[in-house]
Structure formats: structure tokens, C-alpha cells
Amino acid sequence: MSKLIKEESEMKGKRILVSVLVVMVMIALSSTIARADQTDKLIEILKDKGTITDDEAKSLEKKDKGEASEKEAKGEESSDDDWTKKIEVGYEKGVYIKTTDDRFSVKLNVRTQGAFSYEVQEDQENTTTFKVRRARVLLGGNAYYPWMKYFTQITLEGGNASLRDAYIQATYFDWAEPKIGQYKVPFDREFLISGFDLELIDRSIVSDTFSLQRDIGIEVSGELIRDQLAYGVGMFNGSGANQNNVNQEFMYVGRVVYSPFGPVPYSQGALNTPASPKLSIGVSGAYLPGLKPGERKTLAGPLGNTNIVPVKSDVYELTADLVFKYQNFSLEGSYDFRNIDPNKSTPFGQEQAQGFYLQGGYFLIPKKFEVAARYAWVDPDNPNQKDDNKQQEYTGGMSYYMYGHQLKMQANYSYFRNQSTSGHLDDHLVQAMITLAF
């Protein structure tokens, strides 16, 4: 019985849908016929009054029908208010739709990385696996004004969708561009570079140890002195991505970058083979007063680890970075410093974590085939004396760029040495990855 009722309900729905479609078609046809009848009547009246001759009337009727047939063949609308003339669709570093007056736009990007890894760990079993390293969907554009920008990024790797970025930015003045929402904290250059624009598969252990990653807050940034000096200052919740502030304390961050030969884009490698030298020097500082253990959670870096921040503490971080590119050669590096002060006595107490990395790359075939290498060292001291063994990283790799960073293949070998109470633990990691971004 229930099946019969369901079938009758479906048939009723189909009948309603067909009826609606028929009515819509009839309305469209009747409108067209009415317009045609009005035109014919007007021609007949003009002929009866002697305003036009029989031959002229026939010519007008023929011309009217010809224009209608031509528009129908071309699929054109008779209305002057044609919305398709106000919309532009295309591809420019992403699929976009925008209004011709530049008041509204949306750009879609899809990025994914498929990887394979083989890891040999001295104190654990070896592992071999395929994985989705990154999978992202990005939407950005402007609304109401060309300078009112927005951007969102959704993470898909791991099987769960989560919000990575979501912010609004006013770019009316180059020297002062306010931004509010969730995004990368303006701190270390290596993390500010997209994971899709790296010349080695992963970032260094220095970035893993000191990066502040993402947070929710407000920032003002801009470029000064003929684009040679860039800055960014911001105030954030201090709790990480997708997290509200848990107290009345905030995280304060500032960054200044000097580029004497013009701005250097945030991407690795001399992919564009600059004919003249490109140099950029950056300095950043961050202050997190009253940071609670476990306060920083998702996409927030190592300060969410309760072994590193065991009690409520004031945290200070500093970093200085450099990047140089010329022709087929690129070089970059940074020095990072952190102090976690549970007694609030001094910003530079006894437990001072620090680290540095140096990375270089060279295109053996310009814009196509690159080799790169990196050395990194970290001393992650903290008040709890846990997870604070010195670490070293040696990584070498090669990249083949089929279409810049948007389509490339990479292979890396990494050797990690971790200090322990009994000596050293040595780990080896072999990785291969392909990147597709559009």
C-alpha cells in the first residue's frame, strides 16, 4: 500500500512539473504572438491611412519577420537589458566570474598534492605510505568596490572539511590595508609561503618549531618608500584557527621587510630567473601575554603543546629572515628565537629556544629542472625540560616544473638527527610528490 501511495505521489509531482513547464511555454509563446499581432496591426493602420504604400507595408512585414528570425537564430534576447553583457567569465590564475563594472567578482582555485613516503626511524618501525599531502579549495574576489577584497580557503585532506582562511581586506590605500578574519599570522617568511610554492616538499624543522601559523584577528599592512619597505602589525586572539579567545589577553605581532630592489614574491626558487638581483630582509616579533597550557589549538603551531607551555606564561618570539634570487640561483634562511617565561620576570630568561636554517636552489634547466638543499638546526628549550632535545635536518631534493609551481613533480631525501640522553636517534625520510593547482 505504501509503495502504491509513493508511486501516486511521484506521478502527481511529475504532472505538476509538466503543467508548470507547459504554462511557462504558453506564456512565452503568447507574449511573442502578441508582439507580432501588434506589429501587424500597426502596419495595417498605416496602410489604410495612406501613410505607406502596399509595397512599403509588405517590405516592413518582411523586414520585421527577418529581424525576428535572425535574433532567434543567434539566440539573442530582444530586451536591451541583457544581463549576459554585464558578466565576464574566464581564466586568469583561476576560474573567475566578474561584472564588467568590476564591482563584484569571484575566483575559484583547486589545489591538490599526492605524495608517497618511506620513513626509517631508529626507535620505531619503518613506515611506507601513499597520502594526500594537501587538498584545498579557494574562493576569493571583491564585492561592491574593486578594493573590497575577500578570501576563503577550505582544507579537505584528512577526510574532513575545515576552514583554513576567511578574511576581508580593504586595499584602497597601498600604504595601509586593514584586514580582519582568520589567516596566516605575519611572522616567519617560510610559513607565509604557500605549501604549494615550496622548492622542497616540506618546510624546515625551524618553521615547525617556531611558526605561529594561523589565528583570528585584525591586521594593518602596506608598502612604503616606492614599495621597498613593507610592514604588517596585528592583534589576534592567540588561540589558533577556528578558536575564540579564552581570556582577555591577545597576541601582538609585527613584521617589517626591506627589499632594496623591489618586492620579492612569497614563493621559493628562482623560477622567474630574475635578470637583476632580488634581495629581501625581514624582521618579526610576537608577544603572547598570559598564554595558558593548551590554549592554542588547531593550526596554531607548537605552543599548544603542554610539554612546551606547561603553565601560564608570557611568550616572546623573534625572527629574522633573508632571501636572495638572481638568474637561476636562490638562497634563503632565517634565525628564530623564543622565550617562555612562567615567572614574568624578564623577556629573556634562562630557557631560550633558538634555531636557524639555510636553503639554496639552482635551476640546471632554467624554469624546468631545479636541485635544492637545506640544513636546519633547532634547540627547543622550554621550562618543562621536555621535548627539548637538539635537532638537525639535512634535506636534498629535485623538482621538475611542467607549469611553474602549479604543475610540478618533486623528490626529496631527508636525514634527521635528534639528540637523546643515550646519544642520538637518526631518522631517514624519502618522499615523492606531484602538485596540481589551477
Roughly how much helix do the residues carry, as a percent range? 10-25%
Which structural class is indicated by helix and strand composition? alpha+beta
> Which regions contain 5 or more consecutive residues with pLDDT less than 50?
1-7, 9-36, 71-78
Query: What is the assigned CATH homologous superfamily of the largest domain?
Result: Porin
According to CATH, the fold-level topology of the largest domain is Porin
Order of strands, widest sheet = 3-4-5-6-7-8-9-10-11-12-13-14-15-16-17-18
**What is the CATH top level name of the largest domain?**
Mainly Beta
| H/E topology pattern | HHEEEEEEEHHEEEEEEEEEEE
- Provide the number of structural domains: 2
The averaged pLDDT comes out at 86
Distance between the termini: 53 Å
CATH architecture of the largest domain, by name, is Beta Barrel
Largest sheet: 16 strands, antiparallel, barrel
Q: Quick one: how many beta strands? A: 18
| Share in β-strands | over 45%
Radius of gyration, in Å, reads 31 Å
Choose one word for the global shape.
elongated
Q: How many separate helices?
A: 4
Note down, in words, how this protein is organized.
This protein is an alpha+beta fold and 438 residues long. The protein has two domains: 2-78; 86-437, Beta Barrel (Porin). Helix content is 18%, strand content 47%. The chain has four helices and 18 strands. The protein has helices at 2-48, 54-74, 189-192, 205-210; strands at 87-91, 95-99, 104-121, 127-143, 148-155, 162-170, 177-184, 214-224, 229-236, 251-258, 278-291, 313-326, 329-341, 352-365, 369-379, 391-403, 407-420, 423-437. Strands 3-4-5-6-7-8-9-10-11-12-13-14-15-16-17-18 form a 16-stranded antiparallel β-barrel. Strand 2 and strand 3 (104-121) form a beta hairpin. Helix 1 (2-48) runs antiparallel to helix 2. The chain is elongated, with a radius of gyration of 31 Å.
